[in-house]
Design brief:
Length: 329
């Protein structure tokens, strides 16, 4: 059944079957970039991984910016003040009135091309909106009418929304805010996979096992995304490796993550949950700021550190390999 036709019978299904029995296919290469903690590199990972996936993709790659800070939109060259003054933002695409109107949405109007000549032409974004921080209140008001029904409607709509992009976009990446708000929950359930990002210090890694355990408890099981592993961001390196404090924090993280893996995740990840590392380099900061030409320096080796190109290419390769293994092809 298509997303449009299933929307037409949503109310009937919810009344007859109940919220937990609604099952809908997911975009097979959709990834939720997530962590409870802010400032750990979710936006950095989403932007860089999206760019490098676009470089090898035969089709387009789509990025969703659902964080009210609009960091991803800013990092990719959008003026969020101007974007928020239009109706073509993620806010209007996911606010409660949209949940039964997907077939009326001209989704191609929401996807925006990147203006910089340094970025792949097949990479597009659904820009964020500062108004997104109001969504949780609006959703909560809707849930007061019938929490079970409308929460299921939101979760189903999020899956249908991402699936609507399957034919045109090979990968869909969702940059999430550091919270468990309803929209974060919906997008996590809508994605086939999730990729936590953290900085290797004791404060940043603290919530990672709790996040993974929370995902493992999502009901129904068909809504649970599969873990691709985790990315370590902003590594301060000494002699090409992590400094002592980072090594200790990472060792704690490895032990805690491996204890909460699901059987299918254990099969794919084994004892190597780490996807890859992103070093703390000025060239990345400049690129995410206003100097998109800095991407031309990603292959330049400095200060004994691995190049950005080598690091992100390695992350991309692990991600695509694990998706292939999970999907069985």
């Amino acid at each position: 059944m298509s997303a449009t036709s299933s929307l037409n019978t949503l109310a009937e299904k919810l009344d007859r079957a109940g919220a937990t029995e609604i099952v809908h296919p997911k975009h097979p290469r959709s990834i939720c970039i997530i962590n409870y903690k802010g400032g750990v590199g979710k936006t950095t990972t989403t932007a860089l991984l999206g760019i490098y996936l676009a470089k090898i993709s035969k089709k387009k790659v789509l990025l969703f910016d659902i964080d009210a800070q609009c960091s991803l939109s800013l990092a990719l060259g959008f003026d969020p003040e101007k974007v928020s003054n239009t109706e073509l933002t993620v806010y209007n695409l996911v606010e409660p009135r949209a949940w039964t109107r997907l077939k009326q949405k001209k989704l191609e109007n929401y996807t925006q091309a990147l203006k910089s000549a340094y970025l792949p032409k097949n990479l597009q974004v659904i820009p964020g909106s500062f108004n997104t921080d109001e969504l949780d209140y609006l959703i909560a008001k809707t849930l007061l009418r019938d929490e079970k029904r409308y929460l299921a409607e939101l979760f189903l709509y999020a899956k249908q929304l991402l699936m609507s992009f399957e034919d045109e976009y090979e990968y869909v990446l969702v940059d999430c805010p550091p919270n468990k708000m309803f929209l974060t929950q919906a997008m996590l359930r809508a994605c086939s996979f999730y990729l936590p990002v953290t900085i290797p210090d004791q404060i940043s890694i603290y919530g990672m096992p709790r996040l993974i355990r929370w995902v493992c408890q999502i009901d129904p099981p068909s809504d649970r995304p599969k873990l691709l592993g985790y990315v370590l961001n902003a590594l301060n390196r000494a002699g090409g490796g992590m400094v002592g404090s980072q090594q200790r924090a990472h060792a704690d993280l490895v032990r805690s993550v491996l204890t909460v893996l699901q059987p299918s995740e254990q099969t794919v990840l084994g004892n190597k949950a780490l996807v890859g590392e992103i070093p703390r380099l000025d060239v990345i900061a400049r690129f995410l700021g206003e100097d998109k030409s800095a991407i031309t320096e990603f292959s330049v080796k400095k200060s004994g550190q691995p190049t950005v190109d080598a690091c992100i290419t390695a992350i991309r390769n692990v991600v695509t390999d694990r998706i292939t293994r999970y999907n069985g092809n």
